[in-house]
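Marked as duplicate of an earlier ticket. Keeping the data here for the record.
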Amino acid sequence: MLMTPARSRILIVDDDAVTRAMLRGILGEAGHHVGEARTSDEARAAIRNAAWDLVLLDRRLPDGDGLLLIRRVQESCRCPIIVLSVMRDEQDRMLGIGLGAVDYISKPFNANEIRLRIRNLLASGRRSLDVAMDGPITRGPFRLHPATRTLSLGNRTLRLSPSETRLLAIFLTHAGEVLERERLTPRICGRDWSYEDRAIDVLVARLRKRIEDDPKNPRWIVTVHGDGYCFCDAEEETGDQTAATRPS
């Protein structure tokens, strides 16, 4: 059973007072510390002045597109982001996830649904954080530093998004194992997988562009049709005998 860490710090970024009140009630009942921002400027100030465990981000803010804040959150907090939006277009949803959000919830939302998603995401995120504190994950030519979200690959150093970091950490520590979307989605996105859910596919495509010489013909992250994805065992490819750090 997933247990939500007590007193997580959650920032609500939404100009609608009713939405903020609803979320404040849900989060307050769960014992979390809640911060609020009504605009992009207020959100930037809150991000500069405090550390957050989760950000609930409205898609449309009075002084700009909420999606433009995703990078700022990632640079400052390294915490998961859930986008809230009245827009139900699938392309818009994929845009938010592609920029680094881990979930995209359409308004109006069900209180029980969002309560469950937040609880699962915080629990999943805390487990990932525990792994990150253990140190770098090394396999073959890959050396991932989850705490700083940096990847050393050959003579390159890449900075990854939080979602890319979590996904690559799982791939590196489960090399050679077929990982189904329904197994990856709860760990990466904090929710159950559904047939229409393309979040993992979007993240895999992004990660391939970062680490593959030819993303259309991947060497490392291969598709197992009908099942999911498998990370090619880098140790066999390179002869490197370094063991990957596995999460506890």
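See parent ticket for discussion. Residues 1-6, 127-133, 235-248 have pLDDT under 50 and may be disordered.
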